[in-house]
Amino acid sequence: MPQSRRIKSVLGAVVLIAGTGVVILGQGGGQPGQGRGRGGQNLPPPIELAAGNAMTNPYRMLENWPHLGDIKPGAAIGIFPDGKGGVWLQHRSVPAILHIDQSGNIVKKFDVTFSSSHGFCQDQDGNFWAADSGPFTDAPDAGVKGNQVFKFDPNGKLLLTLGQAGVSKAGPDTFLSQSPAAPRLTGTS
């Protein structure tokens, strides 16, 4: 048996992890369904994969969008449309909340810094709710920032603060941990 065929026989099946799914590709060599595995067992035929993505992507990458200037980009935590072609963005950088128009220009910055941005939504009155989960390690702001939820008006004015800065415990005025939430039309969440 030639060495290349022996190698194909030894390799048998290749497991490819793609995204969140696992695709098992059949044995490379021989006719489909004719592959032999360990101990001479028959292997299933190889899986035929689509030549390309079957779905059409309605989005496209825009180079140099948004125009952040001297703002260091951070992980995007919350993004939602403003209804005028632009977006509101909460990210893990300073300032943490930005309003970006459809051309990519920053039209509004909320003068706010979070330890670790962790949730962002808008209620039916146009107010913004942002969560700061606090540091995940012994960062310099541990015990100083985080574990709070903030409500801002559309101009960035702080209207309400829930929780105590840096205090992570269950209680009537503290949070053990926050997670993103969206207000219901009734005004409750």
Features:
four-stranded antiparallel beta sheet; 1 helix; Neuraminidase; mainly beta; 10 strands
Topology:
Elements: H1 3-11, E1 14-18, E2 21-25, E3 76-81, E4 87-91, E5 97-100, E6 106-110, E7 117-122, E8 128-132, E9 148-152, E10 158-162
Antiparallel strand pairs: 1-2, 3-4, 4-5, 5-6, 7-8, 8-9, 9-10
Protein model, in words:
The termini are far apart. The chain has one helix at 3-11, and strands spanning 14-18, 21-25, 76-81, 87-91, 97-100, 106-110, 117-122, 128-132, 148-152, 158-162. Helix content is 5%, strand content 27%. A hairpin with a 5-residue loop joins β4 (87-91) and β5. It has 189 residues and is mainly β. The protein folds into two domains: 1-57, no CATH class; 60-189, Neuraminidase. The chain is extended, with a radius of gyration of 26 Å. It contains one helix and ten strands; from the N terminus they run αββββββββββ.
